[in-house]
Amino acid sequence: MAEQQSTPSSAPAPTGSPAPAGTAEAGGIETGGPAPSSARVGGTFTVDDAVELAVVDRNGFVESRHIGSAVVVGPDGEVELQVGDIEAPVFPRSSLKPFQAIAAMQAGAPLVGEQVALACASHVGSREHMELAAAMLAKAGLSEDDLRCPTAWPQDGPARTALTRGELEIGGRTLAAEKSRLAFNCSGKHAAFLWACVENGWDLETYLDADHPLQRHVVEVVEEFAGERIAHLAVDGCGAPVPAFSLRGLARAVGRLAAAPSNKNANARAATVATAMLDYPWAVHGEGEDNTVVMEDLGIICKLGAEGVLVLGAPDGTACAVKILDGNGRAATLVGLTLMAAAGAVQPEQLGPVLEKTTRPILGGGEPVGRIRLAAPVLALLD
């Protein structure tokens, strides 16, 4: 997974408490709801509260077990299916990016088309991804030097090779043969953040601080769409604040996002974000990558987050949020799409070809000798 892991165990809290929900133009969304009911503000759900979601089968022997929690909400935001603890706070990690993009656009970032999709991306750092991030910065009168995300080598093979050789040209200049902030998977989000700051005359050096006006607005947007208060605020792998709230709240937020294009009363920025993600799925992840494949083949929003998080959202507002407790996301797409099919949001016959592309085989000697398969609690929901 492209995302770096958060190193701080906790982040500096915003000055004062988060701004009240209800000011983010959500369009008919009820806000100001309670914080997640779990009292475990110091952590997410425990092993005792999780269920087995998937197992790794090697030659008929269960080698590993992935436990976690998952929830599907219907178009009305009510729970339709659940396994495990869906009320304990979780960090959405990069599955939060569509809502950070909404906040940046509401704050004035004039994003359009594939720029919107890249603002939501955990991209692989292809030449196209890096060119687009650089172009966004240039339109704001900025450059890569203004980004505060970490540097990285591209995950994309051709771009990585070109960069290591000092042969990668981006934005009309040849990059040095070293890690680049443009290649970091969150560079599009950071470019959008900076563009919003430029439009408002906000400080650029501190745009990742929790008490910066833009980051406080992100919290407003999250609480607006999730319908609940955040439980904790930390520092994500890219350096931006990341709030913790319930898995149910995350699914509810994604459902509202996914349904926005067909709802005339919905938040206009949410409609723009959902449309752009589906129109430019390559920008959100990368050609042949899991999130891109799901969006291209099924027409539903799909967004990963580090530490085993995945969200899915269908156009009717049915949405799923998955958290694998051990942080390994290799089974998340299998579990999430299965639950969406169980809820009737995806046709079962559509799953096979997509799962073939997104679920990696278990290899022995370079040949398939097993597979990742669903565990009993998930299979029981299919009956």
Question: Nutshell version of this structure?
Answer:
With 383 residues, the protein is α+β, with helices and mostly antiparallel strands.
User: What is the CA-based Rg, rounded?
Assistant: 20 Å
Beta-strand content: 15-25%
Q: Quote the average pLDDT.
A: 91
- The number of domains is 1
CATH topology: Beta-lactamase
The N- to C-terminal Cα distance equals: 33 Å
How many β-strand runs?
13
SSE run: EEEEHHHHEEHHEEHHHHEEEHHEEH
Number of helices: 13
Uncertain stretches of 5 or more adjacent residues: 1-32
Instruction: Kindly state the percentage of residues in helix.
Output: 25-40%
What coarse outline follows from CA principal-axis ratios? globular
Q: Which CATH first-tier class would you pick?
A: Alpha Beta
Which structural category do the helix and sheet elements fall into?
alpha+beta
Biggest beta sheet attributes = 8 strands, antiparallel
